[in-house]
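> forwarded from #structure-qc
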C-alpha cells in the first residue's frame, strides 16, 4: 500500500471504513478537495463513489477547486435523482461570502477558469 499513489489510497481508505462499519447510513463525511493527486479520469470515478455514498444515506460535504469534480458530482447526482446544493465562496474585503448557486453553477466554473483565462490573455498580448 505504501507504493500506491496518494489519490488512489483514498479509494482504499473509504473501502476500509465502509467494510469496518465506520461509515454507515446517517454518517457524515467531509471531503476537502478530494481531487488532490487524482487524474481527471479518477476524479470522475471518485465523484461516482461519493454519489453512491449519498444514495446509501451518508451525508456528504465536498469542498473542491476542480471543475471535473464539481460537474461530475452535479451530473451523477442528477442521474441518481439526489438532491444536492452547491455554494460559491467569494472573498469580500476580509470576509468570505458564501452564496448558494445550485441553480447557476456557471458562476463556479467562471471563477475556476479565471487563472487559465489570465494565462491566455498573457499569451495573446505577446
Amino acid at each position: 500500500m505504501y507504493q500506491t499513489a496518494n489519490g488512489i489510497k483514498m479509494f482504499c481508505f473509504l473501502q476500509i471504513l465502509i467494510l469496518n462499519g465506520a461509515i454507515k447510513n446517517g454518517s457524515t463525511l467531509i471531503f476537502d478537495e478530494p481531487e488532490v493527486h487524482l487524474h481527471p479520469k479518477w476524479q470522475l470515478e471518485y465523484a461516482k463513489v461519493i454519489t453512491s455514498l449519498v444514495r446509501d444515506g451518508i451525508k456528504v460535504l465536498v469542498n473542491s477547486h476542480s471543475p471535473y469534480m464539481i460537474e461530475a458530482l452535479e451530473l451523477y447526482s442528477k442521474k441518481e435523482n439526489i438532491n444536492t446544493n452547491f455554494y460559491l465562496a467569494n472573498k469580500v474585503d476580509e470576509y468570505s461570502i458564501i452564496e448558494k448557486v445550485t441553480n447557476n453553477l456557471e458562476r463556479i466554473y467562471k471563477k475556476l477558469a479565471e487563472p487559465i483565462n489570465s494565462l491566455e490573455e498573457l499569451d495573446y498580448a505577446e
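QC bot note: The chain has two domains: 1-84, 85-126. The chain has four helices and four strands.
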